[in-house]
Amino acid sequence: MSLSAPSPTRKKVRVEQLRPGMFVLELCGAWLDHPFWRTSFLLKDQADLERLRQSPVREVWIDIARGLDVAPEAPAPARGDAAPPPPVKPVRTVPEKVPLEEEIGRARKICMRACREVGGLFQQARMGQALRTAPVVELVEDITASVLRSPSALVSLARLKTKDDYTYLHSVSVCALMVSLGRQLGLPEPELREVGLAGLLHDLGKAAIPLEILNKPGRLTDEEFALVKEHPRAGHAMLSDAGVTSDSALDVCLHHHERIDGRGYPDGLAGEAISLHARMGAVCDVYDAITSDRPYKAGWHPAEAIRRMAQWTKEGHFDERVFQAFVKCIGIYPTGSLVKLQSGRLAVVLEQRESSLLTPRVKVFFSTRSNLHIPPEEIDLASSLVRDRIVSQENPEDWGFRHLDELWAGPPARPA
Predict the structure, then answer these.
(1) For the stretch 245-281, what's the b/e string if a residue is b when 16 or more beta carbons lie within 10 angstroms of its beta carbon?
(2) Helix or strand or coil: residue 359?
(3) CA angle centred on 55, ends 54 and 61, rounded to 5°
(4) Which residues pair with 26 in a beta bridge?
(5) Are 113 and 135 in contact (CB under 8 A)?
(6) Could you list the mean pLDDT of each consecutive 10-residue stretch along the chain, which spans 416 residues?
(7) What is the pLDDT of residue 2?
(8) Which of 135, 129, 134, 105 shows the shortest CA–CA distance to 117?
(9) Which residues lie below 8 Å from residue 295, measured CB to CB, with a gap of 6+?
(10) Rg of the Cα trace of the chain?
(11) Which residues contact 43 (CB under 8 A, 6 or more apart)?
């Protein structure tokens, strides 16, 4: 039965008549035309209202039993009275960019909630239960908003996952990386959310792999690796059975392990036969995997990961254009990287400068000349007043730094 069936509590109204507090029951128009993943929801704030008004959707169905009714029209002015001024057309609300330090707290909360929601989805898949995708789909909007406010915060926090929560936070990290990469590639906002959803769901098929294989500390046997390589098809089947209709989510789930040179799996696709979204997924998936601690190896540091991936791109693993865009959004020295400055000081990278990848904002904390810690100080290497520059990337283990991430992310969150 259609949601738009006649009912005394349902009304079809123009988007100009909407106001916060109304319950939107159905959006009239194609799914990709509107800026929301949900088709029914309580219109809570002005920001959502402006996004809807700026979309191609012109009419919606509301339910006045679950929200506000249309405001009564003002009476026509009496003869001789001045007509009221025309309403000012609202300006679309876009998340305002904020420094990494300001976004860290919000990003940490998103990571914790996302880990629970994605963990629940994987558990449903392992138990053969019907997948409830609505909660994780709603996460995409929060993750997208966080990335648009501060590209580095959530991406960098999700990298700090433990071995125990790797599977779940890997999905969250790839979601954020896909949004950030899509933004760099100039994808429109609705498509950013679509690739974000694809990133969040891309590895669901690993729920079909026995945990003793996923968490095995040693090298996999040929038989075990063959089983792991089935996870793209398993995930695609799970999403299809759950009624997921996003072409991007289905495609990235199935093809994020394909390679440009045709040596990937499961279908051995090559070059242009691999969609843009799947090529994006391949880059984001590998970057997060190699920078994360796993049961069988410690993660590489971000700058080292970028260097290795650049070599793999030359060897035919990744799409070169997509990888170059990825480097621009992550940076040559990603957040959390340890670098040595010309002055002899060591610093941790805080945030990228899109205009210059070689001059990020950093926090110096150690002098290699005196071999002593110094008071932490933030420096913007792009400033004309700063004469220092990066001369090398460093390995924190070589210097014995065990708590480097606390310099940019703050102390680890304590359980409530």
Answers:
(1) ebebbbbbbbbbbbbbeeebbeeebeeeebbbbbbbb
(2) strand
(3) 110
(4) 61
(5) no
(6) 54 86 78 56 75 78 82 55 44 67 92 91 91 84 92 87 82 95 92 94 95 88 95 96 92 98 97 97 96 84 91 97 94 92 96 84 96 95 93 91 86 53
(7) 39
(8) 135
(9) 163, 215, 216, 217
(10) 24
(11) 18, 19, 20, 21, 22, 23, 24, 49, 52, 67
CATH code of 100-330, in short, is 1.10.3210.10
> What would you measure as the largest C-alpha separation in the chain, in angstroms?
89
| Per-residue model confidence (pLDDT) at position 69 | 84
Specify the amino acid at residue 66. Answer: R
Query: Count of CB atoms within 10 A of residue 121's CB?
Result: 24
Torsion of CA 330, 336, 341, 345, to 10 degrees: 170
- Domain coordinates in residue numbering, the chain: 10-63, 100-330, 338-409
Cα-to-chain-centroid distance, residue 321: 20
Question: Token pair for residue 342?
Answer: 């010309």
